[in-house]
Predict the 3D structure of the following.
Amino acid sequence: MTTSAPAQKQQYVPSIQELLETVSLYLHIPFCHTRCYYCDFNTYAGILPLREPYVRALLGEIALAGEQAQHAGGSLRRARTIFFGGGTPSLLTVAQVRRLLNACRATFALDEDAEITLEANPGTLTSEQLIGLREDGINRLSLGSQSFDAHLLKTLGRIHTPEEITQALSSARAAGFTSVNLDFMFGLPGQSMRQWQQTLEQAMGLRPEHLSLYSLIIEEGTPFFDWTQEGRITPGDEDLSADMYEYADELLQAAGYTNYEISNWALPGHESRHNLTYWRNLPYIGMGAGAHSFFAGKRFSNERDPQHYINTLKKRQLPVVESETIEKMQEMSETAFLALRTAQGLHLPTFEERFATPFARFVGNRLRLVEEAGLLEQAGGWLRLSKRGRLLGNEVFLRLLPE
């Protein structure tokens, strides 16, 4: 007698309307030992004594935001991911991170399998800290590595060494982390192709589950911007940066990584669910000084100054300082160009389900020129950038913005 194999249980895939009823949570931790020369994030050095008052304020905001996000009947809003970003979240103690996580669990309906990420500087981690973080529920680590070249790390103003990157990953593995991201930068002042290749080779030797590779953009208000204006440094060559990107993509894909978003590569099953929230233009609530949110049809942001943020929460007031209503056309535009940053691209039936408008009617003939230039391709209900289009994506994205 033969028996048939049991039917494989299909994984439930939520509809776009269900996902729009959920949120991802972002917690901004603005503390740093020093500010890197290229950084224009809302981060601060020299204010470490504010950590505990800041954590207490953040606990207050989590409670207020969770209450405001509740459904009409009073049930808690479902949360799919939590991301501790910064700054350097690893400068918090394990106990402080635990309190913040417990507050999120108390005020949001956090998924049992929620992805919970913490950003860390390789030079600020200890084995004991990693063990504690893993035990408390952090299940994904993102290490701001930037380079395996000691000279380039100093050029960037980073305080860790190449050896500390390797040590941090080894300690994370020992603590039970099975999902680790490494951040690296290319197109740096004075960076050669060989230096980039050596960094990638060393990264491949560590076999992280995820890599984020970013081309340096010199932002106004940073030391790098001032030094560029003064002629003290020369920005990386754009053509060389493009070559670095293409080299990395070929190397990583040959090693089994998928380039699922323009700047991000992952082994199967290790794509960042939190970052996919942004690229799918799904709701998220940002908490902490300077954090941004997109929820209930509005985009809003918090007070940037940590002390002012703390003072506002002492009054049990949400620290929102800017807010705008996102009209339907703007949301359609943003949904389209954010999706086109991903390898999958824009799923046209989902777009129509979300907005009750076919994409072809929304876009009209605005994409005709970039389609004729071979920057887009369409297959099986998906619209995505071609290989050439991924290098010239801004040409496509600009045509999707509201007029």
User: Anything to note?
Assistant: The chain is about 40% helix and 20% strand. Residues 1-9 have pLDDT under 50 and may be disordered. Residues 347 and 380 are 9 Å apart (CA to CA).
